[in-house]
From TrEMBL:
Residues 59-86 are annotated as: Disordered. The keyword Transmembrane helix applies. The chain crosses the membrane at residues 30-50. Keywords: Membrane, Transmembrane, Transmembrane helix. This is Transmembrane protein.
């Protein structure tokens, strides 16, 4: 997964360099090209592809929390509702 992301960032850098060095291009155009064609799509791709890993980490943390406190009651003591006395 990361190999594809690195390769796409490389392509976006080359596109931005071509935009910056073109006779009709600008540095601002190169920055916009890099952000819109490089950073934004790669960040979305990495976020989507990492969702399974985040889900597994959350499940492991929940299991560890339940195991640490005995698993038969809430991990923290309850608080009184707002406006109510305990």
């Amino acid at each position: 997964m990361y190999l594809v992301a690195i390769a796409w960032i490389y392509v976006a850098v080359m596109m931005a360099a071509a935009e910056a060095t073109s006779s009709q291009g600008t540095v601002l155009g190169a920055i916009v090209t890099f952000v819109l064609y490089g950073v934004l799509p790669v960040s979305i791709l990495v976020y989507i592809m990492g969702s399974g890993r985040r889900r597994q980490a959350r499940r492991r943390a929940e299991a560890a929390s339940a195991q640490a406190d005995g698993g038969n009651h809430a991990a923290t003591q309850g608080h009184a509702p707002v406006g109510k006395e305990p």
